[in-house]
Amino acid sequence: MSLTKADPNKQQWEDASEAFLELTYRSADLSTTVHCVPLAAWHHALDVKSEAPTADINRQYYAQNMANKVEEGANVYDTSKISPANHETLKKLARTEPYYKRNRPHICSFFVKGECNRGDECPYRHEAPGEGDVGQQNIKNRYYGTNDPVAKKMLSRVKGNSLAPPEDKSVTSLFVTGVEEDIQEADIRGFFYAFGEIKSTVIIHRSKCAFVNFATRISAELAAEKVSDTGLTLNGHALRVTWGRPRPQGPKSDAKQRPASTGVMQPPAPPTMNAADESDRYPSQDPTLQGSSTKV
């Protein structure tokens, strides 16, 4: 046994006499590099069709033969099918944070039928199952990577992220996220200048984002279409691109657009105290009406 600082279980598997144990660890180690992507989605993204049998005994025999080929130096995997576009698809499917909902208890089948009598003491979840194929998935299909609704949902979500242009024709800017410190304005302009004239470029490294403002809408649509097909990677960093949002319209301050009158009669202005015409005075300003009189 060689001295390494790796996992002791890994070291035992590598030095094991059974060849299929070594291949089993390699398969498990490979699964951790795809960031919890379902097997069906992984096969579809890399255009790989599994030829392994489904029976346990046959799978062990198949793994042993594959391990022998690896020891002989044979090329078991066809790496020619792994294109940069496939890698970008896997990056979009990858989960960068732990998925804690995986450890939740199962849904109580008696609660779904309305027959659970345990109440709060029931160790299972009391909630309705999810709608659609995802709520009716089979763990066997998930394990073998066949007819997996979760993988189909993830793949459809990636395909649906196609940077569809907004209806507002005034939007000519693209919003870029994931901009690291080593990505400068020249790097962003070097990629987007081929699609048309760039009016301005704003980079905010503190927020890891950037704005690319094109002079015309056609240039912005061409750039969005290219990014949607091939993705955007600058200096080894995969960036995410979305359409910018239209600027909010503020309150109109033009007085000409305000209505001249509301159609309601306004009360007359009060008369002045020094008015020459006595008829313009209010009744309260007449002292004779208040019961007072002057003596001669």
From TrEMBL:
Designated gene of the protein: RBM22
Zinc finger motifs (C3H1-type), residue ranges: 102-129
Location, primary (coarse class): cytoplasm
Record's subcellular location: Cytoplasm; Nucleus
Highest taxon, organism lineage: Eukaryota
Compositional bias ranges of the Polar residues kind: 285-296
Name of the protein in its database record: Pre-mRNA-splicing factor RBM22
Record-annotated C3H1-type domain positions: 102-129
Keywords: Cytoplasm, Metal-binding, mRNA processing, mRNA splicing, Nucleus, RNA-binding, Spliceosome, Zinc, Zinc-finger
Segments of this protein annotated with the region Disordered: 241-296
Single GO cellular component term: Prp19 complex
Function of the molecule: Involved in pre-mRNA splicing. Facilitates the cooperative formation of U2/U6 helix II in association with stem II in the spliceosome. Binds to RNA.
Family per record: Belongs to the SLT11 family.
InterPro entries (alphabetical): Cwc2/Slt11, Nucleotide-bd_a/b_plait_sf, RBD_domain_sf, RRM_dom, Znf-CCCH_RBM22, Znf_CCCH, Znf_CCCH_sf
Xref: Pfam families: RRM_1 (PF00076), zf-CCCH_RBM22 (PF25584)
Single biological process term from Gene Ontology: mRNA processing
Domain RRM: 172-246
Organism of origin: Apophysomyces ossiformis
Gene Ontology molecular function, alphabetical: pre-mRNA binding; U6 snRNA binding; zinc ion binding
